[in-house]
Amino acid sequence: AAAAAAVAAESDAARHGDAPPSPPVPPPEDLDAAAALGAVPSGLIVVAADWHIAFVNDAWTRMMRVDSRDFVGHDFWKAFPALTEAERRAVLDTMADGVTRRFRAESPGGRIPGTFDVAVARDGGGALVFDVHDVSAAARTEATERRRQEELDDRVEENESLRELARALAAVPDSGALLETLCDVAISQCHASASLVALVRSATTDGEEDEGTIVAGAGRNHRLIGASFPLAGTLIERAARGRDTIVTTGSETRSEYFR
Is residue 239 within 8 Å of 245, Cβ to Cβ? Predict the structure, then answer.
């Protein structure tokens, strides 16, 4: 009779659209805490008060591509020797005062490069719980955006430099003074100690050499205006022949500027 009554009640609930009864909740002592933690999608590490690693979940071992046996039961500090000083301080301070702290780490203990957001908290029993999230994709996007912004800032600065150059040259009345002004602006914009403009003349007859003549200069090169020199083997020849920018070290410049 009791079974019939239960079936009748269930049928009546179904007819009226009532939700079926919830399954019974097991008492706390019957819950499998390790299984529950293992199902958490973020990486979890539990470190006991004596600093040995008591637990890592499957999400963390998959994330870091490691075997839990290489960590569980091992000393935390030996398992994670690459922690930075700031990260070590965050862990020690949380163990001492119980305040949850967060930091961004680069592949903590893993065998692959990556970026991870880590939160470390202390439970009531004195153990530390690390909650680890893989944010490598987001970090790469942030880095790309930073590079783009830096490139944009560089272009803005370069454009402003060109506008400054245009304003300076527009106020110069003749070509000689124009080149002198160009040299002065080059020193200012490039943070240099000297600059010059050279006129390159190709040889027209056998036996002649290509020649360069300094037509304008500023800084310590001002005294060289009017001087001519053989072009062969100089930086100026390399720039003229390749029609490109030549970048050298200071020692190269001193030894190859003129021959």
Answer: yes
Instruction: Indicate the angle between helix axes 175-190 and 136-170, nearest 10 degrees.
Output: 150
Encoding tokens for residue 253?
């410049």
145 DSSP 8-state letter: H
Distance in angstroms (rounded) separating the CA atoms of residues 17 and 160? 72
Buried b (16+ CB within 10 A) or exposed e, 200-236: eeeeeeeeeebbbebebbbeebbeebeeebebeebbb
Rg of the chain over all Cα atoms, to the nearest angstrom? 37
For residue range 110-167, what is the model confidence (pLDDT) as tens digits? 556 688 899 999 998 899 999 998 888 776 787 788 788 887 777 767 667 666 766 6
- Residues near 146 by beta carbon (within 8 Å), at least 6 away in sequence: none
Residue 128's identity, in one-letter code, is L
Phi, psi of 245 (to 5 degrees): -80, 130
Residues ≥6 apart with Cβ < 8 Å to 101 = 90, 91, 93, 94, 119, 120
**Dihedral sign computed on CA atoms, order 22, 27, 32, 36:** positive
